[in-house]
Each structure stands twice: as structure tokens, then as C-alpha cells.
Amino acid sequence: PVATKAEKDTTPARYAVMGNPVAHSKSPVIHKQFAHQFGHNIEYAALWVDTDGFAEAVQQFRAEGGKGLNVTVPFKLEAFSLADNLSERAKLAGAVNTIRFEVDGKIFGDNTDGTGLVHDLTKNLNVHLRGRKILVLGAGGAVRGVLGPLLKQNPALLVIANRTVPKAKELAKTFAQFGKIEAVGYDELVGKRFDVVINGTSASLKGEMPPLPVNVFAGNAVAYDMMYGDKPTPFLEWAMLHGAETAADGLGMLVEQAAESYLLWRGVRPETRHVIAALRKG
Ligand code: ATR
């Protein structure tokens, strides 16, 4: 049967975030607010997917008419493998957080995490990275996802610190072609100062913080935690006590990466400031 125009107009375009866990995801609220800005008719669900059921869930969602997906823990690497075509930033990240189903049936994989972080820093927090010294903590998937866009901002130096130093060295090697990047252990940070310190470890999830030396912050330094929660993370609390001028959690990054996904799907970039403010109020 052929849909009439009236029917077409009332059928929402379907999107979702797939993850495990996913129940507490803020993505549905964020994307519904974005759609409201433009009067777009969309549906956005949080879909819990079995750890070994991702590929099947993606195919099913597409078969049901889905237009695009966000992908979160633990499926970003699998989404990368599943994509038929990848954006340059997804290739660099080695992971996919945004899928667009193309009309020819292909899966396009993108990664908006790093761009989201850079947007939050430069546009929302007014922190400019060009010529600055950046310290990134951690060397897992979350960090890999943001190094490309960070280096594109032309910092004077980007240092990756990790407990397991070889993981940091590996990343520095991969990204050396994009800018000045070094890898160190935490003990090697003694005596060094940075303008921007970004926590990309999962320490905050466990109520821990990376073993930073005091005096790591230069004057007017910014501490940024890619995680967020109801209260400041241990890293941000420590940062405020140890000389950081500004402390910001990853809520802005979350909204900005979502805005970049929305742009990929719908061709327009939503306003984010009010959305971030509304989420902060809860
Ligand atoms: P993700 O995909 O979220 O990045 P991951 O790949 O498991 O997760 O990486 C977690 C990162 O957090 C790693 O860099 C880890 O350090 P190690 O590689 O040395 O294990 C880091 N991390 C976790 N807990 C930490 C802590 N308490 N202090 C410092 N680093 C920590």
C-alpha cells in the first residue's frame, strides 16, 4: 500500500541509542528537545541490547524503518566494524558512536565524541586550545575518540598520561602525524604544568581519581572531566582545590556530540546552550 501524504507526515522518523546499560541515558531527552526546536517529527528510544546481539539489533532497527542510531558502551567498536563507510573522524577514533542508514542500504559510521568535546570547550566554555598545553588522562577508547579533534585545534603540545604507559605510547604513535603529542606515566608529570587537563579515564565511575602530582595546573587552567554526574567528580573536586581556575564536567560534551549526530541525520545543528542548562536543572 502507498502511504498518503497525510500519513507520511504523521509517521515519525525513528532514531535510538543502543547500549548496555542504557536505562539512564539522557540521549532521548536531548534529541526530543532538538527535534522540538525545528518542529521535526521524530521518535527516539533508548534500546537495551544484549552484549552479543548488537549486529542483529541494528539490522532489525533498520528493517523497521529506523533512520539512525547512537551507539554507546560497549558497542562502539562493533559499530565501527559493522559500518560500510566511515567518516575520517570515525576512522581516527577507531570507534563509531553515530550510525546513519543510507537510502542504498549502506551503514555510514561517524564519531561525534571528539568534535563534541572540542565544541564544549571552545564554544560553551570559551577555552581555546590553539597554542595551549593540553594534558589528557587515560588511554582507553574514550581518549582515542577525542585525540584527532583535539590535535586539529593546534595545541602547542598534547601529553597523554596513563597508568599503563605502553597504551599511551601506542596512541601517541598513532596520532603523531596530526600534531605534537607525547606519552608519559603519571610520575613523569612532576614539575610540568598544563593549561587544560582533560580526564578521559574511567576513574570517576569508581569514585577514584588519577594519581596527579600537585602543581599540574598552570595559571588560569581548565580541568575537564569527560564524565558527569549529579555532583562534581573526584577529579574536578581535586582540581578546584589544587589551582584549576575552571572545572567542567562532560554534560556539555554529551549534548554537543548529540547535536553533531543530529546534524548528520537531519542536516541542521540544534542550539545546545538551553538544552545543557535544562539538563543541569534536572
Ligand atoms: P574507556 O573505553 O572508557 O576509555 P577503558 O578502555 O577501559 O575504558 O580505559 C579506561 C582508562 O581509564 C584507562 O586509561 C585506565 O588506565 P589503565 O590503562 O592504566 O588501566 C584508566 N583508569 C581507570 N581507573 C583509573 C584510576 N583509578 N586511575 C588512573 N587511571 C584509571
UniProtKB/TrEMBL annotation:
The keyword Repressor does not apply. Shikimate binds at residues 25-27, 72, 97, 113, 228, 257. Pathway: Metabolic intermediate biosynthesis; chorismate biosynthesis; chorismate from D-erythrose 4-phosphate and phosphoenolpyruvate: step 4/7. Residues 126-204 form the Quinate/shikimate 5-dehydrogenase/glutamyl-tRNA reductase domain. The active site is at 76 (proton acceptor). Residues 17-99 form the Shikimate dehydrogenase substrate binding N-terminal domain. Gene3D superfamilies: Leucine Dehydrogenase, chain A, domain 1, NAD(P)-binding Rossmann-like Domain. It holds the Pfam family SDH_C. One of its GO terms (biological process) is chorismate biosynthetic process. Residues 250-280 form the SDH C-terminal domain. Its EC number is 1.1.1.25. Homodimer. This is Shikimate dehydrogenase (NADP(+)).
